[in-house]
Amino acid sequence: MESAVANLLSPGEEAIVASCGAFGERWGKICVAYGAKPIFVRSEWGTPTDPEAVRKALKEHPKAGAVFLTHTETSAGTVNDLKTLGSIIRETDAVCVVDAISGLAGQELRMDAWNLDCVVAGSQKGLMCPPGLAMAALTAKAWKKVESSKSPRFYWDYRTIRASVPQNETPWTPPVTLIVGLSEALRMIQEEGLENVWKRHLSLSRAAQAGLKALGLKLFSTAPCSVLTSAYAPDGIKGEELVKRMRVELGVSIAGGQEQLKGKIVRLAHMGYMDFSDLVIGLSALERMLGLMGYRVPEPGRAGKEAQAALVS
Q: Which domains does the chain have, with CATH numbers?
């Protein structure tokens, strides 16, 4: 994300930042760090970015050099309509920049067809590898911004990295073991078929939603993404305590809320190589810990059944 800002903007340049969660806010913080001027288009956390609000911001700030978006905003469990957003941004001089760190290979994303000019991602989510690799893809429109950017950069400089590609080299020492792991992960994805991978994640998402609802929990996001599902913690249950006790006492890790959602929601991931058995274990452990913390589950054991029913429907 930082490399995208460093290469696509110049100090003092305006940029539209569409934020519907913690990672959208992070785009804005990085812009400030590089001397750019973020113009925020905010929606309530759990609600996707409004394309018309982005269109309005672009009209009001015609010199904005970029629009920064989040693919799957995992702080809230929300997916954004990149196809519509990309079509709006395409009609302007601004480049469309997408944080696809959690969504790549887990949620449908079509860079060329959706007019996405720069997509950044990481190795540790849907690509099923340990953290440590970052990647970026750019269109010709984005490369023009790279060439004109006045931001200071050295290791982040896309021009230096691009010059090494024809020699099958990297300009700096590469993390060889991670690259080998990524090669194997990509082989697995190709073998399954990318669209089948997207369908599998969507099925797990629907199963997670069904299971959480069966526990009597209210889903948090109005547009749930395929890689992670969020739900409100029940009244009287502290989300952070719930997450900690599940990990310590039951050996099962889920995530709590971030920033303003800390203690208010829980998040179940189902991305990468996670499968239905992992989801059932997570739901069962959540049900058990909720009971230990004094929450009355509407129908014990129903969560797993509803998740299974959703998966096969």
A: 2-185 (3.40.640.10), 194-312 (3.90.1150.10)
CB 246 within 8 A of CB 289: yes
**Which residues make beta-bridge pairs with 95?**
66
**What residue spans of 118-227 are helical by DSSP H?**
140-148, 158-164, 176-192, 194-214
Give me the count of residues in the chain: 313
Q: Give CA separation, 299 vs 38, 248, 302, in Å.
A: 48, 25, 6
For the record, the structure tokens of 150 come out as 């006045």
For residue range 128-168, list pLDDT tens digits in order: 999 999 999 999 999 999 999 999 999 999 999 999 999 99
42 neighbors 65 (Cβ within 8 angstroms): no
Rounded to two decimals, what is the model's pTM? 0.96
17 class by beta-carbon count within 10 Å (0-12 exposed, 13-18 middle, 19+ buried): buried
Classify 287 as helix, strand or coil: helix
> Longest C-alpha distance within the chain, in Å?
62
